[in-house]
Design a protein that fits this description.
The structure is a homodimer. The first copy, chain A, is mainly alpha-helical. The first copy, chain A, has a domain of 106 residues: Winged helix-like DNA-binding domain superfamily/Winged helix DNA-binding domain (Arc Repressor Mutant, subunit A). Helices cover 63% and strands 7% of the residues of chain A. Chain A is built from 7 helices and 3 strands. A 3-stranded antiparallel β-sheet of chain A has the order 1-3-2. In chain A, β2 and β3 form a beta hairpin. The radius of gyration of chain A is 20 Å and the shape is globular. At the A-B interface, α1, α2, α6 and α7 of A face α1, α2, α6 and α7 of B. Chain A binds a DNA duplex through α5.
Chain lengths: 172, 172
DNA sequence: TATTGTTATACTCTATAACTATA
DNA sequence: TATAGTTATAGAGTATAACAATA
């Protein structure tokens, strides 16, 4: 497979617009983490949490209902044990609590406490406030378009990747 | 600063479009890495390299001229020692070579070999080909808009983060 | 037997600190 | 003394494997 690919792709470059999109996403994503924007928003919210824990808290706040460990993991696109530890850390700080699932005693449902909900609200507000300032000069049309297109892009890409994985592209 | 922010941000939610953009970027970025799209493209290019090494190779290919270690680090937004190791790995595989900088004997310029250039071309073509398929159904107008808006977003966000860092938001 | 979650461990990527060589 | 790069080490984030409890 390495020496004889079905179609040698090197001949013609795909359209330039595509070539532009990919590095932008990378750059944005790395700017958000390397620029420590998330850490700042966390600090502004008065939280002494690392990023994964904040992710769990925001997932719960966004869900607006108690979630299982597995559900949180799915939404965050991470694996179960990772969530277990983050939830334990959040529990210790009194930001989430467990409520047993009456229908399935293997599972436990996680929900934010009052303090957790408030902290998540402060965090999200801080982050979005920063973004709102960054986009302050944008015409409303452009904001709408960006949100629409980015949503579609994310949907298309993830759907395609899921199919990819399931159809047996898995064993490279 | 934590107790008396100029405008308390918690009261009203910023517009919903903003709230939508952020998780999309996260989701996209994580889909690209978790979905192992990059690993697949690497394998299709016949490369036995990890992601950071591929990043270096693509940086060099994109630059179209020999780069210093420090220049590569800047472009990848990582730190020098990290690049040093990746370049060493690429050297061992014959994908890049060093050419001494005649004007500054402390520095070494890195350039891809023939094999390195070809491998980078194959990799980029594979990745973009995948993306092209994912976006096959999109109207050209939407693609253009997405590229334009995403570029502007990346520019605005990174510029703002840079200012942020330099103006002394640094010591939280 | 399949599923939910936990514990323990390992891996990937990247950063920081200490150092060398040249400027 | 300042800069380019290297070596060695440390840390954050996430994955895999082995296991326990319940379904």
């Amino acid at each position: 497979m390495t020496t004889e690919p079905p179609e040698p792709p090197a001949a013609e470059p795909p359209s330039a617009d595509l070539l532009a999109v990919l590095p932008r996403i990378t750059r944005l994503s790395s700017a958000l983490t390397k620029g420590r924007l998330i850490e700042r928003a966390t600090a502004e919210a008065g939280l002494a949490l690392d990023r994964p824990a904040v992710g769990v808290l925001v997932s719960l706040r966004t869900a607006d209902k108690p979630l299982r460990i597995g559900e949180i993991a799915d939404r965050m696109q991470v694996v179960g044990p990772h969530v277990t530890r983050q939830v334990q850390a959040l529990e210790k700080r009194g930001l989430v609590r467990r409520v047993g699932d009456p229908h399935d005693r293997r599972a436990s449902l996680i929900e934010p406490t009052e303090a957790g909900t408030e902290a998540a609200n402060r965090y999200v507000a801080s982050l979005l406030g920063w973004f709102a300032e960054a986009l302050a000069g944008w015409p409303q049309q452009d904001r709408d378009d960006l949100a629409r297109l980015l949503t579609r892009l994310a949907d298309d890409v993830t759907a395609r990747l899921d199919r990819f994985d399931e159809e047996g592209g898995g064993e490279v």
